[in-house]
């Protein structure tokens, strides 16, 4: 019997690329989308069942888990990919935007993960792969709420990894760097931003990390490796050159020196050392709608 993976948020970007990667490797895939219009997005692929799911609706998670398991009789891997990106100065972000950020990226993810845990526990096998972000590793400006939600995902995953160890199951977190997924064209931007922030905001969106990214297939490959490498003791996986360099640079410089270099790069300008360490994606220009 082929293994089965559930992947959320698959209409485009990393989610769609991840569906294609698992199918290419011979897996059954249960893919989720939020809109009826996207239900046929994977119709050209064999062994894919596409279902509607709004991850914000926590009450829908138990029923969806049952429906997903019924598609192929079992689920071996859950990939929590669906996410929402709100950006802008914290001062200008609304309470509704902040709550929605955590509802999608944290509370909805937790609800769906909890719904699948009994299945993994009783079967004594299973892997949960959740997408965190490069921004959970370092404090980029104007994404403070987003990266707080992704840091919560990383911390949650570490604790869950240990909780699941007695059941031969595991939890992993993938930290994508910048990828060409239209994230900068679909984000929810804070409104009525005070003029005092504009110069720094413009400067941030002209930095290499906000201008170039890797293809979604890069992250999809890392997600697949996290799900299948048989290394339950490994929790963190880095996707893209701008992500992969972070743990190496932190080890080289130490936490405080690394932070000082990173902060300077996002305020007064990066040093020669930082420029030599910093990496961007594969040169693909990111689509923006600012």
TrEMBL record:
The keyword Oxidoreductase applies. The keyword Cell inner membrane does not apply. One of its GO terms (molecular function) is oxidoreductase activity. InterPro entries: NAD(P)-bd_dom_sf, SDR_fam, SDR_oxidoreductase. It is an enzyme of class 1 (oxidoreductase). Gene3D superfamilies: NAD(P)-binding Rossmann-like Domain. Its EC number is 1.1.-.-. Keywords: Oxidoreductase. Belongs to the short-chain dehydrogenases/reductases (SDR) family. This is SDR family oxidoreductase.
